[in-house]
Specification:
The complex is a heterodimer of chains A (about 190) and B (about 300). Chain A has about 190 residues and is mostly helical. Helix content of chain A is about 75%, strand content about 0%. Classes of the chains: A mainly alpha (about 190), B mainly alpha (about 300).
Amino acid sequence: MVDEAGRVLALLCASLPSFAVALILIYALAVALRLVPVAGYGDGHLRYLILPAMSLSVFTMGTLVRLTHASVLEVLGQDYIRTAYAKGLSKSAVVLKHALRNALLPVVTVAGTQFGQLLGGAAIVETIFAWPGVGKLVVDSIYARDYPIIQGFVLLAGLTFVLVNLATDLLYAVIDPRIRLGARARGGGDDHG
Amino acid sequence: MASPTLPAAPAPTETLHDEEVYAVGEHSPWRAAREVLRADRAALGGLILLGLFVAIAAAAPLIAPHDPLAINLSDKLQGPTAQYPLGTDQLGRDLASRLIYGARATLGSAIPTTIGLLLIGLAVGISAGFLGGWVDRVVVGSVDVLLALPRLVLSLALVGFLGPSLQSLLIAIIAVGWADHARIFRAATLAAREWEFVLAARALGASNLRIMARHILPNIIGPIVVLATLDLGHIILTISSLSFLGLGIQPPYPEWGAMLNDARTYLDQAPHLVLLPGLCILLSVLACNLLGDGLRAALDPRSRHR
């Protein structure tokens, strides 16, 4: 029951376009309730960050929920989980310490990729909230047919993406001590990319 | 986007979950799909919803109450009335008709794009996986290069170079998206070609093309169907996102994303102009995701622990 509801909720989040979330949030929280500013960068003041951050996180959150779910299910079928139960550990200890930690690897991979995408591709949310970011810059450059800026943007985004992926790979070794950096390279963890 | 973890190829019989299917002994993806829909109400709901949207898109001229482009400034920004069942937009155009024609614009471009993407991914992926050698190395190399860049960035850049229009948007989606598919289908082919019937076909003297088309393709149909369904959702999302930015379907033609963009200026006066197109995008993408997720769960034995 919880599983089914969680699945539909996560799918719902992963089906919501960020711009629709942004507009609905603006209407509910900024226009109707007047809790936060409608748009603008506001010199980086934290209040101005709330709505853009929420709009961008919904999709990523839904994707990560689904992935964590699948990954934890897979780990729960392993022998060491049965061993942990046999030792007399409580369910929460087994799930949190044994299952979650081992299920984290694909989640970190995708979270890293999503982070890289967000760094380069928040064009839509930046446009809605009138943030002077690289995404808005590139959309404006497309209209203006300003090719050098588009080329520079692709270079910058590609570079950021590669660096984030590198950081993710390094993080593997922290999460899973079995992975030793410098030993034979694993497949780059690209089975989810 | 996170590409789905797919089973390399449908493993025989263990992908099906009812005893009666074991009894039949023959693996049929359509049969498996029917089983899924019977057991999984969410997936069935997705299929019905998707069918509904396709029907609306196909029958748009018959069911739309007004011309979606007809401007009537004296009726602008109205709420629901007898004449305009869902109200009107900032130029007095009928919202219901625009939503109906929007389904046509979005699905009418998303479905062919999905098919194009699958065909290219299949041709490249199966050839690379089956032929191996330099073909495989070239494909894997280009796929790795494409996957090293964020998708939206590449699509944006391509639309930028081709000039904003629906056509360049669809070209950009296919040019960026085929890599993911080629990789998945290549992996599926690598697994399928090790099976004995491929060897048997070769021993009988079948050509490479015949083996790929008649023996490999039917055996990786499971991942193909799952991917097509999930893809349709992603592509609907991409088309409406880029149309929202003004890079896709151009005004005055109705498209859900573009309608949202037009409506955001009138958010405080007419919130339904934002809510309804947003709801249409949400529901159509959700339908694809529900269906694809259910089919994947059924085809991937690892993810089934119900």
